[in-house]
Amino acid sequence: MLGLKALTMATSDRKTPPIGLKWRSSYWFITFVVSLGLATDMLVYSIIVPVMPFHLEELGYDGVSGLSGWLLFAFSAGLLIATFPAAMFSERYDARQSPLVLGVIILVGSQIMLMEAPVYWLMVLARVLQGVGSTCVWVVGMALICDATPKEIVARQIGLAMSGFSLGVVVGPPAGGALYERFGFRGPFIFWNNYGRCGSNCAAHCCREEGCIEMGCRSIEGDETRRQCSPDQAANATVPDENGANVQAGGADEKASAGLAESEKEKQENVPREKPLSLLPVLGRLCRSPRAMNASFMALVYGIVYSCQEPTLPLHLQDVWSFQSGDTGLVFLAGVVPTLFSSPLTGYISDRFGTAWITLACLLLSLPWWIVMIVELNVVLFIASFSIENLFTSGILSPLMSELAAVAREDEGIGYAHVYAAFNLVFGIGSAVGPIIGGQVYDNSRRGWMIICILSAGLVAVGMVVSSIYTGEEPVVKRLLRAMKRDKSRSG
Prior knowledge:
The chain crosses the membrane at residues 27-48, 68-88, 100-122, 128-146, 355-372, 379-397, 417-437, 449-470. The chain is mostly helical. It is built from 23 helices and 4 strands.
C-alpha cells in the first residue's frame, strides 16, 4: 500500500506530461489494451486444455480426465475468490491501472509455476492464481473502458474488447497442441510468456516514466490526464473528443478554459460519482436492481451453456463420427470464429437501438440450433448448427455489459468495477458448474448429448422470458403492453 501511495505522489508531482498523452488517453487505445488483456487471459486458460492430460500421464497419474476437470475448476475457484476484493479495491482507491497490470503479472507468474510444478497440488495452486489474475483483467479492464468511453458508444467498445476473448480461445488450444508436439510440455508456456512480454510489456516494462504504471503499451486512464499535467500544460494538452479524435483541451484565453471545464463536466456525466461502499451495501443495491439481477442471471446461463459443451463435445464427436483430437479441435475452432464478429456487431446495435430487442433476438435465434445439434445424420449439419448457435449465444455478451454499465451510471453508490465483479462472479459460477453437469450427464445417460442440448435450450428459453421482462430501459414486454393499450384505446 505504501508503494501505491508513493507511486501516486510521484505521478501527481510530475511537471511534464507523459509521452504519448494524445493517443494513450483515447478510449480507442484503452479498448485495444483491454482487448489484448482479455486475449492474454483466455490464452492462459485454454492453451493447456489439449496438453495437460498427456502431461499428467507422463507424471504417472491415473484418472487424468477427472484431474484435468479439477484443474479447470481451480481456475474458476480463483476467479470467485478474487472478484469482489479486486472490485472493492479498484473502486475504493480509484485504481484502474495498477490492478490491471498486477493481474497480468500474476498470470505470468502462475504460468511459470504451472510449467515447473512437479506435483498435482502445485498445479492446482497455479490455476487458482490464474483465476485471480484473470479477475483483475476482466473486472478492472471493463471498468476502465466505461470510464473512458462516452455512454452512447459503450456497448460498441465493449464488443470490440470482447473480440479479444474469442481470439484467445481461437489461438490457445491449437497453438498449445502444436507446441506440445514439437517442443514438449514447456513449449506452450514459453510461447505464452514471450507473447505476454512482447505483446503487453507487462512483466518487464510495467513501471515506466517515474512510476506511471500502465498495462500493454502503458495506457493512461482518461480522468488521470489532468492530474498528469500542470495547469499551464493542461490548458495546452490534447484530449479525446466524443468521436475518439484528439483535440485541443484548452488555451490561454477564458473561452478555451470555459470549453475545457464544459468538456470535463460532460465527461463526468459518464462516470459514476465516487461514493465508496462496503461489500454488503454494494451487494444489497445490486440485488435490488432488476436490470442488474437480470444481467447476472443471463451471465449465469451463458456460463453454464458455454462450458457444459467443453468436456462432452469431444466425446460426442468421437462416439458418433469417430473424430480424433485434431478433428475435434477444428470443430471447436469453427464454433469460436463466429464469436469474433458477434460481440462487436451486437454492441453496435445496442448503442443504436437499445439492448432489449437485440438480446431477445440473439436468444431466440440461438434456440432452434440446440435442437438441430441433436440430429446425428450429417456431420456438416452438426458443425454448421454448432457455429450458428455460438454466433447468436455469444451475441448477448455486449448488451449485458452495456446493461451493467447503465446500472452503475444510475446508482451513484455503485461503480463500474462493482457491476462487472457481479458479472464475473456469476459467470465464474456458471463456468464451474457447467463442466460438472455436462460430464456427469454424458457419463451416466445413454442419450447424454441430447439431454445436454435440451437442458441448454431450456435455459436459453428461460433467459428469453426473463430478458423480455427486465432488459433495457424499456423492456420488450413493457413496450408490447403499452402498444396494446394504445391500440385498444384507439379502437374504443
